Structures are given as structure tokens and as C-alpha cells.
Amino acid sequence: MSPINLAIVGVGKIVRDQHLPSIAKNADFKLVATASRHGTVEGINSYTTIEAMLDAEPSIDAVSLCMPPQYRYEAAYKALAAGKHVFLEKPPGATLSEVADLEALAAKQGASLFASWHSRYAPGVEAAKAFLGSTTIKSVHVIWKEDVRHWHPNQDWIWQAGGLGVFDPGINALSIVTHILPRLFITGAVLEFPENRDAPIAADIHFRDADGLPVHAEFDWRQTGKQSWDIVAETAAGQMVLAEGGAKLSIDGTLTFAEPEQEYPSLYRRFAEIVKAGTSDVDLAPLRHVADAFMLGKRKFVEAFHD
Ligand code: NAP
């Protein structure tokens, strides 16, 4: 089968860090064009708008949309309307309804839509799911604390409405939580907003499941020094720690699973799989929890944030 002719829209940090190397190593894809206002990829036809790109490059089969979430719907709509398969970076959109709309359009067009969640493909996630499925979970603590100045310098969009603030990394934790734990819902949350920003810098969230399983998540962007991306579960079979964003799994302090990180190569393998199968993969559970936190959460204003 000939490769899927792929275009990228929104050439920025994640495209250079992850998409380009993963696409280059995957024989199912051939990068044929990019659309970005400023960014380009050497040796690849580049356009400044998705409209110009789709007009000029009819051979495009699929597009990866890697711009900030507030600007993704318009591009996704245009690509799907033109019959292209679409890979959405996380979070898949700025609202639940716009992504549901895209899902319906993809089905109508017979195109594949992929709402990607890279952290779900972290090495220890499946082993954690298997462990938790084999025992009784008593409680869960999610700690996702990082330094926004280090990881998101000069990203104004992330602080604007729809940019999600601390939920931009926090939704990665939620994408793992919704994959490895029973179905949860939020019972209370406190969101801390810098007084000069439209998105939260920290969030403290409590969830439970139908049987009362307590799950507590702490997201904070003010962490300097050691960074934390950990999920700790107390279970009948001991304490499980899924650490470093899903990379390492320990049970009662013994490392039981650690393999090299393969998140984006796995995402592109999955995208090829759904394109070949003629299906879509759109799980909105992580984004739904974020929406619920904004809906149910108390707001606290905290000191202004300056880069
Ligand atoms: P970024 O570099 O700030 O943005 C990506 C590109 O989108 C920019 O270079 C820009 O390209 C384009 N863009 C920016 N603002 C735009 C606007 N208003 N309208 C249209 N295009 C715009 O961000 P990123 O870190 O790559 O993140 C992009 C997405 O990937 C986010 O949803 C993020 O959550 C996700 N992600 C990021 C990381 C990471 O480590 N950075 C990891 C995983 C997932 P042009 O100026 O050339 O148009």
C-alpha cells in the first residue's frame, strides 16, 4: 500500500520535537506539505494557510493539526470537508461541542478523526492498567507539578481563554487516569487564576467513582526544582506509583516496568491503523473532566503571573 500523504498545520515546538522525527521513521506516512504562518520544514512545500495548501496539493490524504487548541476547529473543519483524515494534537479542541461536531463531520465524510492523547502511550501505562485491574484500588493521588516558565516560555495562547492554563499538562494526567481507572466524576475543585490571566495556574480536584473511590489531583505550574508527573494508587496489593508522566511503574518501591519512551511513534502507528480501518478514535473523557472542573470549580485569584 502506498504511504499516506500527510500535511502538518501549525509548525511549532511539538512538531519539531516529536511529529517530524516520528513521521520520518514511519513508512506509512510521507510528509508532503506544511501550512503555518511562520514555520516551515526544510525541503517540504510550505504554505501560510491551510486553504492555500489544500488547493495546491490535491494529493494530501491526511493532516496533523498542531496549532493551539483555540484555532484548531476551523482548520479541522476545512480538512474534513475536503475529505482528508485528521490528527488532532491534544487537547482536541477548545470545547466539547466543537469536537463532537468534527466527529459527526468525519463520519459523514468517511474520513478518520484521531483525538490524540500522547501520554496514554507512555511506556508504563498499560502495565499500570493491568495491575490496577488485578486488585482493589483504595485511593488515588495524582500529582502533576511543573515549572511553566521552563516548559511554556512565551506561549501566550496557553494563558488565554481556551488555552487551558495548567490543564494543558494536567489533561495529560487525565488522559492516563481515564484509561487506567474506573469511570470517575468530579465532586469539587478549586482553580487558582493569576489576576492578570484568563487561565488557571493551579487546580486542586477531587473525583470519585460510583463505589466511592477517592481520587485527588493536584496540578500546579509554580513548581521549581524537581518536577512531578506521578499517579500514586493505594491498593490491596500495595502502593503503585506510575512516575515521570507514565514512564516508570513501581509497586511497593520496586521498579517493575520501565521502557524507552515511544509516545509519538505510537500515536502515528495508531493514526495509520484507524485510517486503514476506516474508523475514528475520539475519546473526549479527559476534556470532559476539564470542562467539569471549570463548571464546578471554585475560583481563587492569586498573584499576577509574569514570564
Ligand atoms: P506552539 O509552538 O506555541 O504553537 C504551534 C504553532 O501553532 C506555532 O508555532 C504557530 O505557528 C501556530 N500558532 C500559534 N498561534 C496561532 C494562532 N493564533 N493561529 C494559528 N496558528 C497559531 O505550541 P506547541 O508547544 O507546539 O503546542 C501545540 C499543541 O501541541 C498544543 O495543543 C499543545 O498542548 C500540544 N502539545 C505540546 C507539547 C509540548 O511539549 N510543547 C507536548 C505535547 C502536546 P505559525 O506562527 O507558523 O502559524
TrEMBL record:
<dbReference type="InterPro" id="IPR050463">
    <property type="entry name" value="Gfo/Idh/MocA_oxidrdct_glycsds"/>
</dbReference>
<dbReference type="InterPro" id="IPR000683">
    <property type="entry name" value="Gfo/Idh/MocA-like_OxRdtase_N"/>
</dbReference>
<dbReference type="Pfam" id="PF01408">
    <property type="entry name" value="GFO_IDH_MocA"/>
</dbReference>
<dbReference type="GO" id="GO:0000166">
    <property type="term" value="F:nucleotide binding"/>
</dbReference>
<dbReference type="InterPro" id="IPR036291">
    <property type="entry name" value="NAD(P)-bd_dom_sf"/>
</dbReference>
<protein>
    <submittedName>
        <fullName>Gfo/Idh/MocA family oxidoreductase</fullName>
    </submittedName>
</protein>
<feature type="domain" description="Gfo/Idh/MocA-like oxidoreductase N-terminal">
    <location>
        <begin position="4"/>
        <end position="114"/>
    </location>
</feature>
